[in-house]
Amino acid sequence: MNEEQMKQRMVTGIRYFVVLVFLMNVLPFILSNNDLSTMFTPVIFLGGIVLLAIILIRQVDQYERGIVLTMGKYTGTRGPGWSVIIPVFQRMMKVDMRVKAVDVPDQKAITRDNVSVTVNAVIYYRVFEAEKALLEVENFYYAISQYAQTTMRNIVGEVTLDELLQNRDKLADRIREIVDKETDAWGLKVSNVELKDVSLPPDMERTIGKQAEAERERRAVIINSEGEVAAAANMAHAASMLAAQPGALHLRTLQAINDISSDQSNTVVFTVPLEIMKAMTGFLEKKGE
After folding, report:
1. Which CATH superfamily is domain 100-200 in?
2. Which of 66, 139, 284, 289 could form a disulfide with 78 if both were Cys (CB 3.0 to 4.6 A apart)?
3. Distance of CA 124 to CAs 2, 155, 189, 200, Å?
């Protein structure tokens, strides 16, 4: 018996107790006195109607459904509003149809690569068939919580740690599909499952931190080497262009000298370009012939 059913039975018991106290104390006093009996006859009649209404009428709120059992047998589901329930022969139990959130407590599990983790989640569901939720399972709130815990441990045990950390949404969808399929016979509809937290042992957290740092260093080295390769390729392309055009290297040398001479504190040592040396060598050879 869940908390809601206990509350309903407590309210019914209080009603019966009030009526019994009235019948045992007030009515004998009035009926024993003829004058009071004549005077209070209309009041007694109206009071009896009110007490009868209190005993027979049950209210079902908009977000609830009332399951009626007549002599222990299911006879119907009452919608929102007032319903007449005959005491002793009939009993009505209310079922909340709103979306409920079940906090799945921390579950310790071992992944496929033998890593101990602690996982917790939250499940959102609602009742779509009140009669099944009440007749097919004793306490659907407790039942869905226990089944979700078992399913979550099984799913975590089927994946590696990397898959658990990277594909949390996919694992949550798998848990939702399995739980929803099983609880469909209970009249429940699971709308969503969210993995809130995945906790690792402290030594494993340090290991993952070192792995991430090594990965960042590897990427930095790769980016640096790629930059050097690109710079070397551009320099080789520039050198080939300068060598292909006569006088280009001389102009580049003059431009470099001009850039250096802008600062008066620098001393410029002018070197003779190779083109001039080659030209002089060719001239001397020609003159010697």
Report:
1. Band 7 domain (3.30.479.30)
2. 66
3. 19, 18, 9, 25
SS3 state of residue 13: helix
List the Cα angle 283/287/289 in 5-degree steps: 120
Domain limits, the chain = 3-95, 100-200, 203-244, 252-289
30 contacts 37 by C-beta, under 8 angstroms: yes
Residue found by looking up tokens 């040396």 in the block: 277
pTM higher than 0.70: no
For residue range 123-135, what is the model confidence (pLDDT) as tens digits? 999 999 899 888 8
pLDDT 10s digits, 36-92: 445 555 655 566 676 677 778 888 889 899 999 988 899 888 888 888 888 878 888
User: Strand 116-127's sheet: what is its strand order?
Assistant: 100-110, 116-127, 188-199
> Any idea which residue has 């979700």 for tokens?
148
Cα separations in angstroms, 151 against 147, 184, 200: 6, 15, 20
Alpha helices (H) along the chain: 3-32, 34-39, 41-56, 130-135, 140-157, 161-166, 168-183, 202-244, 248-260, 274-288
The values of phi and psi at residue 249, to 5°, are -70, -35
**How wide is the angle at C-alpha 151 spanned by C-alphas 201 and 95, nearest 5°?**
120
Q: Which burial class, exposed, middle or buried, applies to 270 when counting CB atoms under 10 A from its CB (0-12, 13-18, 19+)? A: exposed
Among residues 121, 190, 119, the alpha carbon closest in space to that of 157 is found at 119
- Give residues with Cβ within 8 angstroms of 131, minimum separation 6: 67, 74, 77, 187
